Amino acid sequence: xxxxxxxxxVAASVMAVASGCSSSEDASSPSSSxxxxxxxxxxxxxxxxxxxxxxxxxxxxxPGTKVSLSFDGSSTLVNxxxxxxxxxxxxxxxxxxxAKLGESAVDPKVFATNTLVIVTAPGNPKGxxxxxxxxxxxxxxxxxxxxxxxxxxxxxxxRNTGITVDAASEEQxxxxxxxxxxxxxxxxxxxxxxxAKGAGDKVATVVDPAFAAVVNSYPITTxxxxxxxxxxxxxxxxxxxxxxxxxxQEAGFGKP
Length: 256
Hints:
Residues 1-18 form the signal peptide. This is Molybdate ABC transporter substrate-binding protein. The protein is built from 9 helices and 10 strands. By secondary structure, it is of the alpha/beta class. It has 2 domains: 36-113 and 218-250, Periplasmic binding protein-like II (D-Maltodextrin-Binding Protein, domain 2, 3-Layer(aba) Sandwich); 116-213, D-Maltodextrin-Binding Protein, domain 2 (3-Layer(aba) Sandwich). The strands form 2 sheets. It has a 5-stranded mixed β-sheet. The radius of gyration is 26 Å and the shape is elongated.
């Protein structure tokens, strides 16, 4: 009988230890998910495809880090950041909007360049051959707002050529301009080379020699006093790395 009682006591002890281990493991599960870092990246609309690819690779290399991407016109993003929208990293489509961030921009670095191109419906049914042709009778043209980098670049082309585009609308982002053309709401639009390339056979492209003189430099920065500034620096390193640069250049971006 004593042997039986001893065996029962040992079994109970083992079960208690096992139960304690299980309880400990269960308690650690929420803890591990709670330690996940969310890196908030605000980036120009023209970077959507490339930054999504870079973010995917970054997350693979940084277990426990989730990259939350927000895309819009650079001017819009600056305003959002100034109003308190969470952002650890900001990537602008021009240096002018980066400068608007002021001292909150920590040592911005240029990581890519881009130029403009005209997009039309496939086959270019309106026969647009130049920047001046955007004002042809019967042609509905859309451009970006002047506050946005793509709009500012278009304004510069207008000044350089002496041609003012009579646009049907001015959009908040280059993506919106592209959508107007691909959806048939406009006959032509002025976008970046990368946007046209990303659209593939949904558009035809027209290059005007005047576009070569207007090059947008894309800077990226961590945002001062952001919650995850150190992880943001690592993300910037990934953008500037050979792998990140390859993704950007395959999408049509120029070298910094």
